Prior knowledge:
The complex is a heterodimer.
Chain A (H helix, E strand, L loop, with lengths): L1 H11 L2 H19 L5 H12 L4 H26 L8 H12 L3 H34 L4 H19 L3 H15 L2 E2 L6 E2 L13 H19 L23 H23 L4 H16 L11 H17 L1 H7 L5 H12 L8 H4 L1 H24 L1 H8 L3 H20 L2 H19 L4 H25 L10 H34 L1
Helix pairs in contact in A: 1-16, 2-3, 2-4, 2-16, 2-17, 3-4, 3-9, 3-14, 3-18, 4-5, 4-6, 4-12, 4-14, 4-16, 5-6, 5-12, 6-10, 6-12, 6-13, 6-16, 7-8, 7-20, 7-21, 8-20, 9-18, 9-19, 9-20, 10-11, 10-12, 11-12, 14-20, 18-19
Chain B lengths: L1 H11 L2 H21 L4 E2 L10 H26 L15 H21 L1 H15 L5 H22 L10
Helix pairs in contact in B: 2-3, 4-5, 5-6
Organism (chain A): Paracoccus fontiphilus
Keywords (chain A): Membrane, Transmembrane, Transmembrane helix
Pfam families (chain A): TctA
Amino acid sequence: MFSNIFQGFVTVLSVGPLLGIMLGVCVGIVFGAIPGISAIMAIAIILPLTFYVDPIVGITMLLAVYKAGIYGGSISAILINTPGAAASFLTSLDGHALARSGKAGKALCMALYASVTGEMLATLVLIFVAAPISLISLQAGPIEKVWLLVFAFTVVGSMTGESVPRGLLSCCLGMMFAMVGMSSLTGAVRLTFGIPDLMSGFTFLPVLIGVLVMPEVIDAVRRRKTPHQDLVLKVSDQPADNRVSLREYRSVLGTIIKSSGIGTVVGALPGLGSSAAAFLAYGEAKRSSKAPEEFGKGSLHGIAAAESSNNAVCGSSMIPMLTLSIPGDDVTALLMGAFLIHGITPGPTIFYEHTDVIYAIFAGFLLVDLFLLVIARFGFPLWMRVASVPPYFIFPCVTVFAVVGAFTANQSLTDVMILMVFTLLGYGMRLVGLNPAAFIIGFILMPLLEQNLDQAVSIVGGDYLRMLSSPIGWIFIGLSVLSVVSAIRSNRRGRRRMAAFAAAE
Amino acid sequence: MPNRCLQIAVRVMTRRHLDVILCSALILASVLILTLDGLALGGVETQLGSMLMPRVVATLIILFSLMIGLPSLRGLLQDRPLLPTEVIETEGLDGVMIYIVIFTAYWWALPILGFLVATPAVIFAVAVLLGGRSWLPMLSMSLITPTVIFYGCRELIRVYLPEWSF
Lengths: 505, 166
């Protein structure tokens, strides 16, 4: 393994990947820092560009956008109390309190150091855990994979939706749209209703951009009358207020390590995401703190807990995708799409079929942290200025980039029409509380389910009960039931709380 | 006036109405998938068949649609008070409609006018819609961005965006 990692560093330390990482970090910070634009939008827009470069350059660039985007969310959270990403909500509590007292520089530095430390720790876990897990998952045959995918659908569907039926319905809709067009197994043309343009199915990229990115543009159009706030970094006269000293960093290191651990575990579980990690870690840091009353009023521990945990999710969320082919959230679904477009199928075999690529990507992952540290630390004033660009300069360009991105997939205007249709679908889904991430995961995983089910049925012949003969299969069935039951219980509790709140109002 | 009509229409519409309409449409579509023959054409015979999975998923869609639609229908019929998540915000929806019209016109105009002519108009229109009034920077952005994208795509990644077709 160590020789592979060393080889990975040798591969990634060349001009192409390094430029890709630098560009990705810059784009990620800027997009992450602009309220209303998420890292996923940046990744989706950059994605078409990566088709034309080496997979190592393309995928490390996307990962750089992802990591820097999650960190970038903390900039607007601290400076104007508006989180650029949902996961930065808790950072805004303590970070903005510090900024109000003239210590914005200290808050930004703490967010950066905690983010980078959390990311690095999670990346190390990813590197050392992914390959051994893939060895275990290699033992799984088609029957086990079918149950694993059923588990993935239920856990993602039940955890990500506003309610369990809505999450599962979103997933089923994605699965249904994935089956339109020519079946890769039988060659039959399905569900096209006589429309010849649908024979090749819905192209991934327009669907992805339409469902995940364009609704954010529509949201920006809807909120267009909300006043725009410039990001301004007020530098304090006291140098100590503009930086984090080594003593301060050492004092929060325990919190960072514990929160990174929480973020790593939460990230490795499909469907939970970085916001859940931040809330859990923040709660734990507050519970175990000697001064819990300082949380929410400018506590460095609060910033460190929220930022290290939500950034740790970036690394560990890749574990289920790379070892089991299960993307846990919308960003990893998108990254899985990027892997597939580059001809690399995420899953246990990736460590044997694409050893050089995967370890170069791991090395790139670690380098992204270093680049993020340097670029973000020394470019604060520049990023403030770039991220303060008014929305009427950004969203028209995003619209055009989305159209160009959809067009480049097949150089066809049909894909632009598909983009339009899925934009409306994606926005409609948000209006009725359906989850776009669950939709995309259903869309990506459905072909894998069909393929494995076909192989499993061939193995069991006519004796379908043999589908239930695998102990590993039963574990996944149990986990599926457990995830649905626990999601129903937690949603019921949430509804009761909301009803009580509404009654009190 | 259209803005006012839209706001009145949406004020009447709540998440419950949308749930009932959406679930009815999904159930209808799923029943069609379950009952219609000829939705799969050609292909080789396999043990599973080409339509098994679409029908399994269609059944699940009916099940989940009922789980969403029935409580909403009951809430509507019994006129229960709305939860905060069931209220649809109407503010800004007129802008959304205009954006969709611009987007549709862009798709329609692309093969006729070409990328270099249609795109500046769209960028400018969306910028104005978003409240932009810095005319000169907006005009510059509308002209420079499409030109850079058009030639960048052509020269760097060999993607040929639509050109003027007259």
